[in-house]
What does this fold into?
Amino acid sequence: MTQATNKILVPLDFSEHSMSGLEQSYIFARLSQAEIVLLHIIVDSGGLWSVFSPKEQKDVVKKLEEKLKSYAEIIAKKENVKVSTILEKGKLIDTIIKVADDIDAKMIVVGTTGSKNIMQKIVGSNALRLIRETNCPIVTVKDSAKRKSCSNIILPLDLTKETNQKVSKAIQMAKFFHSKVWAVSVVTTSDEYIKRRLKTQLEKVKQHIRDEGVECDSSIVKSAAKNEKMAAALINYSKKVNGDLMLIMTQQEAEIVEYFIGSLAKEIIHTADIPIMSVVPKRKKK
It folds into this structure.
């Protein structure tokens, strides 16, 4: 096993569905020679934790540390990846953000399926905050969406907006995972002039990605101008090309970020049977 310099943070609450994120992280770690960091958070703001005596709290912490270490040892041996553990007390989102920054995480991988899993506490306004405040991408994974490879990255592009950072991130991730990029734009108009213009722009994006040494193909898919229809079109395209990861990026303006997370991106996260990587572009310096 080679020395890992990149770190993948996996919040883990030991529920069945939090394991989806953990299991998906194995392939990411192997492909990028990264270290998996298991994070368990004891939420200490009231609730059951506050009814334990100091001695009982100490015993719980010890048992959780032992359980985490046991998981790490089993995973490292079975999956041939480096695994470390962190046990923290605090507020869920604050702690994930802090730990991600402290360890300089390359990404955060979290399971999303079910009614009682860690992402149930994150999706919504908390998801917006987590995605906006972390300095690394967040991959959400449903149990049915787990992949055994990351050969094909789906890159949806709105060619009416700035795409440079989106394309750069896709190139970075494709090199990180040794993947092919499938650039796709959803067209909601029947105007032939607009469609030809978008096709020309998409061809330029494809050539730029290829010039960076990354294999790339591109397509334009038709859809009605509704979030659920657009999400369905992207998901169907992903199935067609055997997508392993879809990269979505919000816009820079706060109000657009809120709209995006609350609508199209949320629709994709909830319905896609593929891991979704969410990233907020870095703001341009004035």
